[in-house]
Design goal:
Blueprint lengths: L1 H41 L3 H14 L16 H14 L8 H11 L7 H14 L7 H13 L3 H11 L19 H11 L24 H13 L4 H10 L4 H13 L7 H7 L5 H13 L6 H9 L3 H21 L1
Helix pairs in contact: 1-2, 2-3, 3-5, 4-6, 5-6, 5-7, 6-7, 7-8, 8-9, 11-13, 12-13, 13-15, 14-15
Length: 333
């Protein structure tokens, strides 16, 4: 009988031993994480910081905790160390690795509120976080792009670079930054949205690029010309586009003469239609005159000048050219 009692007692002892070992294991990990956290704060080099950040990553789980907190603190060196540790840990992970995807979701999820420097580190890490096949990740990463585009120049440049990622397809969000105060940002945006694409899915119209030919920065002006050439404009047409949007009305008036004599412009109609909407009434009036002289078949834009132009002189002369065109057509018949 005594031996019968020994069996449950022995099992209970084993269970208590295992529980104690588990508690000890958890405590050991907690102590190791605490040590890594304090060592990270005192680390003197990026290599040391990355090593301690990797310890926090290895001891953590895919949820808000000690590791993800590194992206929330106002210590840029810690955020960079966390990003480096994460990229190194999952450098060889397969896109279908569920642990990889879970960690990515945790870092860009709502539970983590990154600081300004944390956002910058996450932007650096963004290509890594888009590697998993998890379909939820692109939507979780897009707010990083939006926040970066509102941030300082360094963040904007990173966001612009990653907005072209095929899983994000956020190039359309870049267009307003063509007017950014920083020339480096404007150049980066023009590189991203200016050239023609293989599928023809440009996010900014060709004519909308014309004003960038007058950018204060020479680099932007050069990139604008190259982008327009990639869209099929000849060097002569790029020069005409520069005149079309020139801030000096005299240059825009000179364009009217050039359009009448430039053989490389096969269809002057679209150019004249654009000039018919010019802010200067002298340019609008000149547009009606040139259209008549070139014997163009007038469409709605001349009728608009004749009927609703805010300048009385433009209305009167546009109406005159309209009548003369009608007489010429009748005489030709």
């Amino acid at each position: 009988m005594a031996q019968g009692w020994l069996k449950p007692v022995a099992l209970g002892t084993v269970a208590l031993g295992l529980a104690a070992a588990g508690v000890a294991f958890v405590k050991r990990d907690a102590l190791a994480a605490a040590y890594a956290r304090h060592a990270l704060a005192d680390a003197a080099t990026d290599e040391e910081r990355t090593r301690h950040a990797r310890t926090l990553l290895d001891l953590g789980s895919p949820e808000a905790g000690r590791f993800t907190a590194l992206f929330e603190a106002d210590r840029p060196e810690d955020a960079r160390a966390a990003a480096t540790a994460f990229a190194e840990k999952f450098a060889d992970a397969t896109p279908g690795d569920p642990a990889f995807a879970a960690w990515c979701r945790a870092i860009v999820g709502d539970a983590v509120k990154p600081s300004a420097c944390g956002q910058l580190a996450l932007l650096e890490l963004l290509p890594t976080m888009l590697k998993p096949t998890d379909p939820a990740l692109p939507a979780l990463c897009r707010p990083l792009i939006a926040a970066g585009l509102r941030g300082p120049t360094e963040a904007k440049l990173l966001a612009i670079r990653h907005a072209r990622h095929p899983k994000l397809n956020a190039r359309g969000d870049l267009v307003p930054l063509l007017a950014d105060p920083d020339a480096a940002v404007r150049r980066a945006v023009l590189l991203a949205v200016g050239p023609a694409t293989d599928d023809g899915a440009e996010v900014v119209g060709t004519e909308e690029l014309f004003p960038t030919l007058h950018d204060p920065d020479a680099g932007v002006r050069d990139l604008a010309a190259v982008a327009l050439e990639s869209r099929g404009l000849s060097l002569v047409q790029v020069s005409l586009a520069r005149q079309l949007t020139h801030p000096n009305p005299a240059e825009r008036l000179a364009l009217l003469t050039d359009l009448g004599t430039e053989e490389s412009v096969k269809d002057v109609g679209p150019w004249l239609e654009r000039l018919s909407r010019d802010a200067d009434p002298a340019v609008r009036l000149g547009t009606a005159r040139v259209a008549f002289e070139l014997r163009l078949q007038f469409t709605g834009w001349l009728d608009r000048l004749a009927r609703t132009d805010p300048d009385a002189t433009v209305r009167r002369w546009a109406s005159y050219y309209q009548q003369q065109a009608t007489l010429v057509r009748q005489a030709g018949e």
